[in-house]
Specification:
By secondary structure, this protein is an alpha/beta fold. It has 12 helices and 12 strands. It folds into 2 domains: about 5-205, inorganic pyrophosphatase (n-terminal core), CATH 3.90.1640.10; about 210-320, Diaminopimelate Epimerase, Chain A, domain 1 (Roll), CATH 3.10.310. Helix 2 (about 30-45) runs antiparallel to helix 6 (about 160-170) and helix 6 crosses helix 8.
Length: about 325
């Protein structure tokens, strides 16, 4: 569904509520925080209060920089919602459609009126409550928010435009994957408001220690069927989900590789897989067989109470 088909309905829903809360997925990335801030900006242009719910205790470097420059009055923890809620409250979920990935799953019970704005492929574990606006053809949640900004004729300040552009750059891997004409138009529209590509690169600067850790993961890569790159992290290291995704992005850049899969520990008893594809292979359908999912070009899953090698063996069996 193209989001603009529901743009009028979305605006009406916002205006029919006194206050709007916005939330993304756990372990915020630049697309999640960028789309949340962009959505808050839209809400405020309709003369409604907007707050972004963030329960994460730690942030990746790019998000940390954004959080630091965002007025604290815009941010709220789930535990403090009751202090702000009024009679008519709306929850807008951005950059995820999965209950288990929300900052706080209890939000679905707290709010009666919900809107989901996302670009990830829905699955059997997707939220089915409220107005669902999912466009899997879009590169990112930030691209969807930019389409709304353009449709509503909203003018941005340069800081928010830069943040939203950062989300697009992140999810397209610098306009390498999931990039269409409308993706470039979204970037053009944001730069017309002063979005600064140099500042985006500042946001995306990497920690050298994290970079070295990722390179060690890449060293153990195994090529399956001459086209699938599969690698695993160290069993003793707990990786951030975005670190696994970055390794998968890197592996996809090598000649002959049409899909990449990175397996690593992401929690005390949790193994994660991050997958990327050029588009010929639907990695979302592959990872659905392991309890996850996503789009054809990017997908992920998390598996409880297993070892990395056990998960890798299951993945290899599917690929072979």
């Amino acid at each position: 569904m193209r989001i603009l088909e529901k743009a009028k309905e979305l605006r009406k829903a916002i205006k029919n509520h006194e206050i709007v809360f916005i939330v993304g997925h756990k372990d915020l990335d630049l697309d999640a925080i960028g789309s949340a801030l962009g959505m808050a900006y839209i809400v405020e242009q309709f003369h409604k209060e907007a707050y972004i719910i963030i329960d994460d205790e730690t942030f990746e470097p790019a998000v940390e920089k954004i959080i630091h420059q965002t007025p604290k009055s815009k941010l709220i923890k789930s535990e403090n919602l009751s202090k702000k809620m009024k009679d008519k409250n709306l929850l807008i979920i951005v950059d995820t459609n999965k209950e288990k990935l929300l900052q706080n799953r209890d939000l679905l019970n707290i709010f009666e009126d919900i809107i989901i704005i996302d670009h990830h492929q829905p699955s059997s574990s997707s939220i089915e409550k409220g107005m669902i606006l999912i466009d899997t053809e879009s590169s990112s949640a930030c691209e969807l928010i930019t389409e709304l900004i353009y449709y509503y004729g909203i003018k941005l300040d340069s800081e928010i435009a830069t943040t939203i552009l950062g989300g697009i750059v992140l999810d397209t891997n610098n306009f390498v994957v999931k990039t269409q004409a409308k993706t470039y138009f979204a970037a053009y529209h944001l730069t017309s408001f002063g979005a600064d590509p140099r500042k985006v690169q500042y946001y995306l600067k990497q920690d050298i220690k994290d970079y070295i850790i990722r390179q060690k993961v890449i060293i153990d890569v195994e090529i399956v069927d001459g086209r699938f790159a599969v690698t695993t992290g160290d069993e003793s290291i707990k990786y951030k989900r975005e670190e696994l995704a970055k390794v998968a992005d890197t592996l996809l850049q090598f000649h002959g590789i049409t899909a990449s899969f990175v397996v690593g520990k992401v929690g005390d008893d949790t193994i994660g897989i991050s997958a990327r594809s050029e588009g010929k292979i639907d990695v979302g359908k592959i990872l659905e067989q392991l309890g996850g999912g996503g789009g054809s070009q990017e997908a992920a899953t998390q598996i409880q109470n297993q070892k990395i090698e056990e998960v890798k063996s299951q993945l290899l069996e599917i690929l072979k």
